[in-house]
Amino acid sequence: MSAFPRRDFLALAGAGLAASSLQRTAAAPEPPAIQPARTGNGDFVFETLPGWGATTGGVASGPTHGGIARDKAGRIYASTDGPASVLVYGADGKFSHTIAKEFAGIHQLQIVEENGEEFIYAAWLVGKRAVKLKLDGTPVWTMGAPDAGGAKSADDWKPTAVVRGPDGTVYVCDGYGSSRIHVFGADQTWKKSFAGNGREDGQCRNCHGISLDTRFGQPLLLVMDRENLRLSHFDLDGKFVAHHSQHLRRPCQVSFHGEFAAVSEILGRVTILDKTGTPVAFAGDNPNRKQWDNYGVPRSDFREGVFYTPHGIHWEPNGDLLVSEWNKEGRISRMRLLA
């Protein structure tokens, strides 16, 4: 005869079944890890690094409508429209800290070394100013609209990009304003402006980005003429030189690796150009046109190796490519260049 009354035996059996059920639940397999994806072609095939930069220590990244830059120590700086402002990561993608919270809304940035110290030059679109910051976010100077630069008022000045020339001259693109490029001395004194709205040679329709191009013996300014779908070269005096590449998908920013240039195109693609401006590879090309330039694509729809709204771009010395996208939830991708 059982040592337990029947009701106790049934209770124990039920408890055992419940425990067994819990054990089976706890032992359920984890969802499969996100697998790397390959994208690109020819000599430029990349493999994604899933999860790079995905953890921000509980800090909400906000929309990654900005740029990407790297300091000498290998840290990556990505600007956003969110209250975190600029996110700083280690080269391994681990989140480190944020800087410059009072400058949230930086649209583009570059890091420049001056006398052994590194500084951030940036277009603070939200604040309608060009700024120079220390790497910890401390401001060195800020510049508003030039008195004679073509803007009707300070509110009409909407800087989208800044680049520092070899002699300390600062070039500021009024991309969302007059489409003029303003030239300031190293002492922040306005000198002149060039370009302006239009389709003709030497004009722009949204000079969205600007970089110093040192591939041709003498440094040139390479301007992302977004709505004219082209990249144009100007000399350092602002004289139009030539169109470098045309028929692009609304180019935003550019980064160089040797003789090649990577261009972020907000219509769902990154294009690699050779020194002549000829496309030699495409990365992340999105076949779904409804997702091109679509700020609202949810994180749940993101796919490895596919871009939606490429905006900021940085090409690492080792060939890795980083891309930030104009997205409400934020997205930063890192891809490894395969040998």
Your description of this structure?
- With 339 residues, the chain is mainly beta.
- The protein has a single domain (37-337), classed as TolB, C-terminal domain (Neuraminidase, 6 Propeller).
- It is 6% helix and 40% strand.
- A five-stranded antiparallel sheet has the order 1-2-25-24-23, with no helix packed on it.
- A hairpin with a 5-residue loop joins strand 11 and strand 12.
- It is globular, with a radius of gyration of 25 Å.
- Keywords: Glycoprotein, Repeat, Signal.
- InterPro entries: 6-blade_b-propeller_TolB-like, NHL_repeat, TAT_signal.
In short:
The protein has 339 residues and is mainly beta. Helices cover 6% and strands 40% of the residues.
Structure class: mainly beta
Element pattern in H and E: HEEEEEEEEEEEEEEEEEEEEEEEEE
Q: Indicate how many domains the architecture comprises.
A: 1
Shape: globular
Largest sheet: 5 strands, antiparallel
What order do the strands of the largest sheet run in, or round the barrel if closed? 1-2-25-24-23
- Rounded to the nearest angstrom, the distance between the terminal CA atoms is 75 Å
- In CATH, the architecture is 6 Propeller
Which fold name fills CATH's third level, the topology? Neuraminidase
SS summary, helix count: 1
- Percent of residues in β-strands: 35-45%
CATH superfamily: TolB, C-terminal domain
